[in-house]
Amino acid sequence: MAFENAIITKEDDEKYGLSKIFYQYSPYYEDPTKYWVVDRQRKCWFMLIKRFPSEEYDNGYGSKKLWRLYYNGDSVNIILDYKYDQKINGKLFERVWVILGFEAIEVKVLEDSDILSLLEEILIKFHFKPYWESQDNFTVTLIDARR
Question: Which end of the chain has the least Cβ crowding within 10 Å, N or C?
């Protein structure tokens, strides 16, 4: 099986404690996010858990967000930002994901290289994009800005 955009089921929520995780970081939302990316066979998922306020606009959210990556018992919080329509090495990408940082929550096995590999698979190979961006030829890349 591969990654898929999915709607969180009651069983998913109970198995992984998804609502509890979401409300820990976003307590003022009435409902947790209903969407996530999951590969159930590999016990791997990726979910938005917090939006950061916009640095440019009052009462709005910016593009910087906190995500949770879970892989077979290991959990990592990842801060990602994104830009639209950016040229990198002469190629135009409709979305450029930028890794700003990692925070290990519970990690027994995953190394930074494993996390990067999973992010590449989710964000680039799977072409993860919000549900409103549905075009098939959506071009995506990932930049590690932690260095």
Answer: C
Residue 113 CA to residue 59 CA, distance in Å, equals 36
Q: How far apart (Å, rounded) are the C-alpha atoms in residues 116 and 12?
A: 24
Contact between 90 and 107 under an 8 Å Cβ cutoff? The reply is no
- As given in the structure block, the two tokens for residue 65 are 């967000």
Contact (Cβ atoms closer than 8 angstroms) between residue 21 and residue 48:
no
- Residues 78-121 have pLDDT tens digits of 999 999 899 999 999 988 999 999 999 988 889 999 999 999 99
Give the DSSP letter string of 21-33: HHHHH-TT-SS--
